[in-house]
Write a structure and sequence with these properties.
The complex is a heterodimer of chains A (255) and B (52). With 255 residues, chain A is mostly helical. Chain A has helices spanning 5-10, 13-45, 59-86, 89-121, 129-150, 154-168, 171-181, 201-245. Chain B has one helix at 6-45. The chains are: A mainly alpha (255), B mainly alpha (52). Chain A binds chain B through residues 14, 17-18, 21, 43, 48, 53-55, 57-58, 61-62, 65, 100-101, 104-105, 107-108, 111-112, 115-116, 118-119, 217, 221, 224-225, 227-228, 231-232, 234-235, 238-239, 242, and chain B through 1, 3-6, 8-9, 11-13, 15-16, 19-20, 22-24, 26-28, 30-31, 34-35, 37-38, 41-42, 44-45, 47, 50-52. Chain A: One of its GO terms (biological process) is cytochrome complex assembly.
Chain lengths: 255, 52
């Protein structure tokens, strides 16, 4: 017993399914409310920025999705440790379920960043360290999904994906610190930095509300996708046992 | 809102809507497909229904 006992209790597929079934309706409701509040604050309440004008509203989508693109990969890296070290049955389920969600948020960050860059920088894309490392993150997600679908045996796919995920996790600190280590067109950190955020509260508050709303959305979708993955694995096991229990195929007599 | 960059803002939120709605729809549809397939197989093989 200890502070980990509630977590270890949940780390059982049956208990996790029961818990997520109870939690998902509540989480979905809170997420919908927070998304609506975030949209209202971002599109209606937040003032135009003194430099960016109305274009600052793209930041309320871009920054949270960029954070979640990185958070999704961090979740996968932690789950990969669970696969390789503890061989936990839920760890690979969590890693697999997080990949398409992380890819979706990473794509959204790239697309909205590009649409912000054209009016503000005069270009949709530059090959600077932040943008390039973030594109690599997106390619890592796609590569991991492709690798998993290319291996039929689930335990082999889990191991291969866990190893590749951990190798690719070196990209996360590179993304975070790229704006400090290299001379980039992308601006340095303005929220997650030492000291006070370099942002007026009228812009910071909607940004943080949207970040919380997007994080809740990620958690909700991740829990739901993990439940589906458990169903998919049970279905696969049942198909195999049903096929092996079926009577041997009897060839039709020759005419 | 009468901003010269309105098109970029609208395009960003439109892509955001498509990605978020797509992620939600994919999650819901995938769960329905897998649950239905499991229920059918369990019914055929005479096994108990598993908790969803």
């Amino acid at each position: 017993m200890g502070i980990f006992s509630p977590i270890t209790a949940l780390a059982n597929p049956a208990r996790f399914s029961a818990f997520s079934a109870r939690a998902l309706p509540w989480l979905s409701g809170v997420t919908a409310l927070m998304m609506a509040l975030g949209l209202y604050l971002g599109l209606v309440v937040a003032p135009a920025d003194y430099q960016q004008g109305e274009t600052v509203r793209i930041m309320f989508l871009h920054v949270p999705s960029a954070w979640l693109g990185m958070m999704g990969y961090t979740v996968m890296a932690a789950a990969s440790l669970g696969v390789l070290i503890w061989r936990h049955p839920l760890a690979d389920v969590a890693a697999k379920a997080a990949a398409p969600l992380g890819a979706a948020f990473t794509f959204l960050a790239l697309a909205t960043g590009s649409l912000w860059g054209k009016p503000m920088w005069g270009t949709y894309w530059v090959w600077d360290a932040r943008l390039t490392s973030f594109l690599i993150l997106f390619l890592m997600y796609l590569g991991l999904m492709a690798l998993r679908s290319a291996i039929d045996e689930p335990s082999r796919a889990a191991k291969a994906c866990a190893i590749l995920t951990l190798v690719g996790s070196i990209n996360i600190p590179i993304i975070k610190f790229s704006v400090e280590w290299w001379n980039t067109l992308h601006q340095p950190a303005s929220v997650l930095k030492m000291g006070k955020p370099a942002m007026d509260p009228s812009i910071l508050t909607p940004l943080l509300v949207n970040a919380l709303a997007f994080t809740l959305l990620f958690v909700t979708l991740h829990l739901a996708a993990m439940r589906t993955e458990l169903v998919r694995r049970r279905l696969r096991t049942l198909r195999i046992t049903t096929a092996s229990a079926a009577p041997a195929f009897a060839p039709e007599p020759a005419e | 809102m009468n901003d010269p960059h309105l098109g970029f803002i609208v395009a960003s939120y439109a892509i955001g809507l498509v990605v978020v709605a797509g992620a939600i729809a994919w999650t819901v549809i995938d769960h329905r497909i897998q649950s239905r397939a499991l229920a059918e197989l369990e019914a055929r093989s005479g096994r108990r229904r598993s908790p969803r």
